[in-house]
Amino acid sequence: MSRIIAGQWKGHPLPVFHRGPVRPTSSRTRTVLFDTLPELANFQVLDLFSGSGSLGFEALSRGALHLTSVDKRSGYLRQQIEWIRKHDAQDQFESFALEAEKYLTRFEQEFDLILLDPPYDLVLDNNFWERLVRHLNGNGWLVYECGERTNFEMKEDLCVTLYKSKKMGDSVLHFYRRGEA
Q1: What is the helix, strand, coil percentage profile of the chain, to 5?
Q2: Domain around 93
Q3: For residues 165 and 181, what is the distance between their CA atoms, to the nearest angstrom?
């Protein structure tokens, strides 16, 4: 069973999904991801393709102010809402049962941190990346988890800088920063 790694909910079990294509990020990968980022106090966080919610819940546990969770599967979001209620954090959480691209088109909010963990076989086109980067605030972080075989290169004109890439088993974490990297 996967658990929160650090922060106020350290050791608390994460939601478990017994069916569907969800691929929760491993504990080791989550550790490296959050150890690479600065302190998350007062961060506004967007978790796209949120699935089990493990990345967003870890961010909240580590001090993020608010989490916006987006996944097209409403059943996943129902389990996330149940988990949030058990942890009395409803005022720090909102969810949207939408395709990621629809969310990015309909809403204009900027975030300090965007967590992006789509299905490894999903191809994200240049329009997606342009819409996504518009949701980062002036010093925001973008973390993209993808398969090691994913053919990906961020366009140079998107005003984000690669901070670090880290291979984790069959996954790669790409850390981008808007502003000073």
Answers
A1: 30, 25, 45
A2: 27-177
A3: 13
Tokens 């140079």, residue? 156
| Residue 76 CB coordination number (10 Å) | 22
Tell me the helices (H) and strands (E) count for the chain, helix number first.
5, 7
* Total tally of structural domains belonging to the chain: 1
Give the CATH number, domain containing residue 126: 3.40.50.150
Vertex 76 angle, CA 134 and 71, to 5°: 20
Helix (H, G, I), strand (E, B) or coil at 96: strand
Q: Is residue 11 part of a domain?
A: no
How far apart are alpha carbons 180 and 171 in whole angstroms?
26
Pairing status of strand 171-177 against strand 136-147: antiparallel
- Listing DSSP states for 43-88 in one string gives -EEEEET-TT-HHHHHHHHTT-SEEEEE-S-HHHHHHHHHHHHHTT
The answer to whether residue 158 sits within a structural domain is yes
Tens of pLDDT, residue by residue, the chain (181 residues): 789 999 999 999 988 765 556 667 888 999 999 999 999 999 999 999 999 899 999 999 999 999 999 999 999 999 999 999 999 999 999 999 999 999 999 999 999 999 999 988 888 888 999 999 999 999 999 999 998 888 777 777 788 999 999 999 889 999 999 976 5
